[in-house]
Amino acid sequence: MLGRRPSLTVGLLPRFADLLSSPLYLSMSTDTSTQLSLMIVAGEASGDAHAAALVRALRVAAPQMPINFFGSTGTQMRAAGVDSIVKADELAILGLWEIGHALPKFWRAFGELKRAVIARKPDAVILVDWPDFNLRLARWLHRRGVRVIYYISPQLWAWRSYRVHSVERDVDLLLSILPFEKEWYAARGMKQVEYVGHPLTGEVRPRYDRVDFCRLNNFDPSRPLVALLPGSRHKELVRILPPMLDAASRMLKTSSEIQFAVIVAANRDPQEALRILVAGNYESSFRDAVRVIHHETREALAAADAAAVASGTATLEAALLATPLVVVYKESALNWHTLGSLITAEHYGLVNLIAGRRLATELIQDEFNGESLARELLDLLNPVRNAAMRAELKEVTRKIGDAGASDRAARAILNFLSQSR
Question: In the 3-class helix/strand/coil scheme, how is 331-378 assigned residue by residue?
Answer without folding.
Answer: CCHHHHHHHHHHECCCCCCHHHHHHCCCCCCEEEHHHCCHHHHHHHHH
